[in-house]
Amino acid sequence: MTAIQRDRRFYFLLFLLFLVLGSNTLLYRSPLSPLVLPADANWVVVGSLIDLAVVAPLLILFLKRGKKITVKSFIGWMVSGLVFARFLIPSAYFEPFTYVPLAAIGVEVLILLAELGLVVLLVWRLPGIIRWIKSHNESLLFSLPSAVEKRVGNHILLRILAAEFVMFYYAFASWKKKAPAGEPYFSLHQKTSLIAFYIMLIHAIIIETAAIHWLIHEKSVIVSLIMLLLNIYTVIFFIGDIQAIRLSPLCVRQDKIYVSLGLAKRMVIPMEEIKEIKWGREAEEEKINSKETIEFIAKDFETLPPHCIIEFKRPLAASLFLGFKKNYMKTAIRLDEPDRFRALLDKER
């Protein structure tokens, strides 16, 4: 029933969006426009600007994110709507309002300058962030994003920069590091073909880059360069992901579970937030809903079941690709040593 209601709501909003855009397009770009529009059409243009700069952006945001609407995203779509209005409305009618898109673009530029200021602040506080990381005995995968959030802020741009720095660190500066070992550490990948699969992908990308780059280069230099840069970035990401998987095993420390699977996802689970843990066959037989359960299961050539499913008392945030965050109610985990992990959790709890 909930899915049906969501579908109806989506299609209703989509219908309203097409109605707003279609009616304004017909108003200004149809054979009937000279007959419908009055000589003094200022109020009609004002109504169209409200449609394209306020109503349409709100409909798009509700379609994309539901209730999670931010001021920045609204301003971005508002500017897009005003630029669209500038091309849609004939110059004879739009001339009294030419300053409106310029003012909106000015606001967007101010927002971009503010975000640039965050980057400058991050660089300014980098020495303090490095000292904070060194004082905490945690994997850089967890400590750097946490340090940036504490010292600078939780803006999405900062999370993306932190995620990119972590990727380049693991790809280029972590080769002398050894994977931590001992009682609180548990690897997730050693009994799977995940690393071999990544190495195979890296080889395939390198061969594809060498073979296709020159073929496309003869037809379009720009496209070939874009594909080359994307392939290089992908290889760097895979190398960093391999190192992050090796050097950041699951860790149980200070009444928390630090679990990650490379650069793409990580989560900190406080022990007091654990409601229930299902083990063995009970965990294997549970149907996993990807919307409420995050999986820390190393990919193999066959689908592997989880060794345990941990349910939380409340939704907990997980950090995903490029620092994006999403809340989950459960996590499914597969380990190389599930029995030892279960024994440690029973002792900790």
From TrEMBL:
Superkingdom: Bacteria
Gene Ontology molecular function: monooxygenase activity
Keyword Membrane applies: yes
Transmembrane portions of the chain: 41-62, 74-93, 99-124, 156-175, 195-216, 221-240
UniProt keyword list: Membrane, Transmembrane, Transmembrane helix
Protein name per Swiss-Prot or TrEMBL: Beta-carotene 15,15'-monooxygenase
